[in-house]
Amino acid sequence: MTTRLATSPVKHPSAALLCVQILGILLYPLMEDTSAERALFGVIGLLVLGAALYVVKRGPWLTGFGVVLALPVVVLSIWLAFDFDPRRMVLMAAFEAVFYFYAAGSLIAYMFEDDVASVDELFAAGATFTLLAWAFAYAYVVCQTLLPGSFGALVASDDPRTWMELLFLSFTTLSGVGLGDIVPLLPMARALVMIEEFTGVMYLALVVSRLVALSVTTRTARGK
């Protein structure tokens, strides 16, 4: 573990991924309306994708498969920046959902490799949470496109939900907060939300609790 981190170009790549994702959350609300803003939106998405792919390379899973999943997203993002088409948008969202689920799974496998919780693995816990939130948000995009009216809201309830609204729904569902201002209406949308709720509970119970226990064990061993 120490050797692998020392030879990496970035000491804590999981922290870099987490920072890029947080930056995306802050910038996404500013770039959803015009073609130029959508292009910038795509650039931020590619940055997140690149950061996720870099972290996946460090995990124990097959990295070639991660590249195969990422390539269609890159091509479609560039294409959409110059020629926006809702059909290509939903296709890209489907690829992104699969890729982010794969990236999250790879990070979870990476965190389960060792019996000692390193600093990078603690950052990986936060990065994995955001990857899962992104993955489900893209799944919601696909669901809403294929099944119009899947999600409702307190404001403009008949309109399709924006990307930020669906990402907000994903974060509140995964964290268990469930604020309730954006709600699933159709059966498939509710099924996806239930799966995300279950994922959030299991992530906290199995992954985060394990890292906390390993951190306490490591500190106790050092104190002896």
Strand content: under 5%
Helix content: over 70%
Question: Helix count, per DSSP?
Answer: 8
Going across the biggest sheet, name each strand in turn.
Answer: 1-2
Q: Main sheet, how many strands, which sense, barrel?
A: 2 strands, antiparallel
Shape designation: globular
The helix/strand order is HHHHHHEHEH
What's the pLDDT, averaged over the residues?
79
Describe the structure.
The chain is an all-alpha fold. It is built from 8 helices and 2 strands, in the order ααααααβαβα. The protein has a two-stranded antiparallel sheet. Helix 7 (about 165-175) crosses helix 8. It comes from Aromatoleum toluolicum. This is Two pore domain potassium channel family protein. Keywords: Ion channel, Ion transport, Membrane, Transmembrane, Transmembrane helix, Transport.
